Amino acid sequence: MNKKVLIINTGGTLSSVAKEHGLTPGLTTDSMLRELHVVAGEAELITQEFSSLDSANIFPEDWVRLAQVISQQRDNYDGMVVIHGTDTLAYTSSMLSFMLQNIRIPIVITGSQLSISNPVADAMENLRCAIYMAQSGCPGVFVAFNRKVMLGCRTSKVRSLSFDAFDSINCDNVAEISSIGMKINTHMLPKKNGIFRLQDRYCPDVAVIKLFPGIHREVLQMYAENGYRAFFIEAFGLGGMPFLRHDFISGISRLTEQGCTVLVGTQCRFEGSSLEVYETGRLALEAGALQAYDMTSEAAVTKLMWVLGQTDNPLEIREYFLLNLCGEVSIPPRNV
Description:
Elements: E1 4-11, E2 16-19, E3 22-25, H1 29-40, E4 44-53, H2 60-73, E5 79-83, H3 89-99, E6 106-110, H4 123-134, E7 140-145, E8 148-151, E9 155-157, E10 166-168, E11 175-178, E12 181-184, E13 206-210, H5 218-225, E14 230-235, H6 248-257, E15 261-266, H7 279-286, E16 290-291, H8 297-310, H9 314-320
Parallel strand pairs: 1-4, 1-5, 5-6, 6-7, 13-14, 14-15, 15-16
Antiparallel strand pairs: 2-3, 7-8, 8-11, 9-10, 11-12
């Protein structure tokens, strides 16, 4: 029996056409249907238009609507493919990983660096990989790109022009395609932790602050005074922050005393943060900061938004960040 796969189109480069002011989304899934069938094998494809947006114009409210569409349709299909622009694809795949925890079918997000209308594009190969993964029966939220499948909550865009635009950060790929076909690393599949329940509440009041030498702690209070409830700080190295001149850590202490959440990670893309190693990190922990460990920036930001949508209790928020919900983080055993 052929597998049924729903293709949801949100726009992006894959479905773009050249216009006066540059590439802009314009192709519908109906217009791409012939190309889609070429890479679908024996799968039965059903298409659905969601939007026609450059992914720079995808916002949290779009994540909610997309999660709702997927939730409503989940029992009608063996898997789904979401066509998405590459620029914010990793944010979408991360947030869907939290909103759609324990979904029983594969949800595979993909896009391309060139439009499907371009004869040398990567679009067809990425769609082939995504549609194949959508038929795999492996539940979870994934990203398919350049002959590899990654956990949605571990994916980052690391190259702006290359066809190998995405990497799985601090985590093995879920699957890879070679001359012997698709090999799925079953140990990398997300663990089922309960029944599926759409969890689409979120809070967008999250600020991202990248440290640089000379940054002043008052920037934190400026954001707080403008209504921001949570902060993701991209610190130096393992989580280093200034605590002598321009004492940034005292600014963190002030925020946590006000009931704000402060999550500290690293500007380094690989290997993560560890605040226990140096004095500066330990002072941040004493000030009430939480650790991002080896989460991607995209996962850290979307997890903050999602957790704040579930609770405003500081103790419960802290507990959420000591949990690996969908494969997004590796937490050292001593902190569990």
